[in-house]
Each structure stands twice: as C-alpha cells, then as structure tokens.
Protein 1
Amino acid sequence: MGFFDMFRRPAPIRDGAALADFIDRNAAFVVQKGIYEYARARAGHYAKAVFREAEFQAACDRARWTAYPLGLAMVAEVVDGALDGSREWDRETGSRAIRDLALGIFDRYPVPAALGAEIWQGLRADLDRRLQAFALHPPKRAMDVPEPYAAAYFDLMPIHKDVRTRDAPTTRNYLRVTLCNVHAELTERVDRAAVAGSLGACPPRESGAKS
C-alpha cells in the first residue's frame, strides 16, 4: 500500500463477491477484537505474560473459531436490515440470498484444528438456523442485532468464569457499538441496486408493467 492509498475512500460494494468479503472481514473483526481486548483487560498487568502461554493461545484459537459463526450471523443480519426497505430490494429473496452468501463464506474455511469436524458442522447448522430466522421477523436496527447473540459470545471468552464477574453488559455494548459502525460503513459504500441485481434479490416486476 502506498502512502496516499490510506486517504482513498474504500471501493463501493456493487456485487455479491464484494459484499461477501465485507461480511467476512467484519465478522472476523467483531469477534476477534472483542475476545482479545476483553482478555487483555482481564489479565491487566499480566497480559503480556498470559498471551505468551501456549495454553492461553490455544484457548483463544478455540474461542475465535467458535465465535466466528456468531460474527457471521450478526454481520449478515446487519446487512439484511440495511438493504431491506429500499425499492431495489425484495425482502424474501434478499434474506435468502444473504443466507446463501453467509453459508458460502463459512464454507470457505477448512475445519479448524482447534475444533474438529463434528463441532464445526454443528456450528454451521446453528448458523443456518439463525440465518433462516431473519425472514421471520422485521429487520432490526443494527444496535438491536446483538441481543440474541451476546450471551453466547460472552460465554466463549477465554477467561475463567469466576474472573469474568459482571462484564456481560460491557460485552453487549461493545457488540452494539461495533455493529453500528459496520452498518454505517455499509450504507456509505453499498450500491443497493447493483447488489440486488447481483444476488437476484430485485423486487418482482408488477404484472402489466411496460418494458
């Protein structure tokens, strides 16, 4: 990257491939940043020493891979809500397209050694269940998306439960703020009509409409 590249605006999101990359990048960012920052805060002055321990590194690896499908579901739901409501986007086909996109992102990754095939496939099934639920309720505001995910995410923190004290609300607030930022970036970059066309999520034409 050149010096002036850092001042360039991010490229517009105009197709399914670009949207998939956006979802993937932000899903990984949301879960990993939360895990490492929480662990660092809980470890305090001992953070550097703790992060060098092989056992702790393995725990973090398990946590981030287990949490990744939750991140995918949360970011996909933010995307679903951000695209819905525009005249270029059909709710039913759009939610189905986002589901297929998110599952395709999950399938990019080989089975993590930290989890094994059985657990990984179970996480995929849980992700699919969450993605299918999008169409069963009205789109949510980005700040409300983490509510059904926050407890499960917090339970994955690689810190003993006796040390976590009452930090669950802090983690929930972190997810809310971060997903609001994801929503803001998406709405600034996305070309709704182009993405809808790419995903086959355009509203059906009214009967009798002139060509």
Protein 2
Amino acid sequence: MSPIDHFVIAIPARRASTRLPDKPLRLLAGRPLIVHVIERAQSAGAAEVVVATDDDDIAALARRAGARAVMTDAAHRSGSDRLAEAARICAWPDNDIVVNLQGDEPMAPASGIREVVAVLASSRAPMATLASPIECVADVFSSSVVKVVCNQNGEALLFSRAPLPWARDAWADGCSVLPAVPSYLRHIGIYAYRAGFLKTLAGLAPTPLEQAESLEQLRALEHGFSIAVGIAPEPFAAGVDTPEDLARVDKLLRERDG
C-alpha cells in the first residue's frame, strides 16, 4: 500500500478561544464548525479521522459525525502538543503519517490535504507543510501573512511574519509591484508528521524565534529538524478566527450549497 493511501487526519479542537468563544460549536450554514472540518477530512480519504479535544460537547459532535474522539489535556499549549498526546493514546506506529488539520478550517480542500501527505511521503524530513505563491505587495508586507523561504531541495529555511526574502534593490526604489525574482510564498498552516516525530516535537523546548514570531513551526527548525514544503494544488480559504470570519464563511457555505 502506498503511504498516501494510508494516513490519519487529526483535528485539534479546544473549546476556549479568546477571539471567538466556543468556536468549534459555532454554527455555519446550520451545522457546527467542527462538523464541517470533519467532513473535509473525510473527503480526503484518510484511514481514520480523529478529533483531539478537551471538551465533552465537541467529542460528542465528533462521534456523531463519524470521527473518533480522543480526550486530551486542557493545558496543552499548542495543537501539535495535543496531537502528540493523541498519538500516544491511539498508539499510532512511529512511521505512520498524521495530518494536522486545524479545527477552524471548514473549507480546506481535499486535494491540499492529500498533497501535504504526498510531500511528506516523498521526503526524508519528519514533517511537511504547504505554501502558495504571493501575488501582491501588500501580502508580502502584512504581518498576518506568514512567509516561508525554502532551499533548493524544497525544505524550509525560515518562516516569518516579516517581508522575506528582502528584495533589496526593488524595495529600496519603493517598488509597488512584486519583483520577478525572488518568488514569495505564503505559508498555509496544514502539517503532516511522522507519528513518532509528533512525540519528539512535543518534547522540544520553546525557542527564541518561535516566541518572537509566535510561529510554532520555528521550534522544529531551531532544533535542527527539516520541514518539507509543497505548493498547494488549489487555494485554501481563510479559516475562522473571529466573528467576522464566521459570518464570511457562513455566507460562502450557504451560497455554495444553494
């Protein structure tokens, strides 16, 4: 069996959220957000879809939607920490591929989920992620758009909220359009890991760049681990972080479903 034909999708979902309380339970087109995310995971053909949560209501919704619910510690600092506990509970073999699909991505395309699996399966890196080309200058300079710079082997050199790479001559002249070289890549927050590396990652100490940029993936790089980066085959719509996002995605889903 090919590695891409056997992978697990794990969805970290906690109830507490500063900007959008009870986020996984909020309704989109009449159904809870977490149910939409589970359906996106199921559409990608995973061998198993697991929701790792600290809340009984979320767990009950997950089970009704056909996913496995795993109860995890409420004190976890990050989604990958939560998934590391799920990996131990589920006893996934160390070499199994686990996709971390964020619990606020109700429109994640199945093709993108499968692509991050394929990128990891074809790489020697212990984890993989996706990116997409940036097409406007404003996104390069936006701190809410995370940029990734890669080496010639398609592995991440750095993730940053800063405008990287810095095109010295173009920006010095006040360029209002993207230079032809270098290319600019927007990081998409979906990850695939070997199950064994999830446990390793959770045991690593936080690092200075990670804390300065508030980007958890930098912890792996700063500790010397590689991250393979693939190009998303189709766009990932923005996730749900705020009430405004909820209204926007609700409208999109209602229009899509007629």
